[in-house]
Amino acid sequence: MKFRITILLILLCLIGCAQNVDANRLFEKGNDKFSLGNYHSAIEYYDQAIEKFSNDSEYYYNRGTCYLYIGKYKKSIKDYDTSIRLNEKNTDAISNKGLALMYLKDYDKSIVEFTKAIQLEPSYDNYYNRAYTKYYKSDYKGALEDFNISINLNNKFADAYNNRGNVKDALNDYEGALSDFLKAIELNPKSWKAYNGVGISYDNLKQYEKSKNAYTKSIELNANNPAAFDNRAMVKLKLKDEDGCCEDLKRAIELTKNGQRAQIHYEKYCKYD
Question: What pLDDT is recorded for position 262?
Answer without folding.
Answer: 84
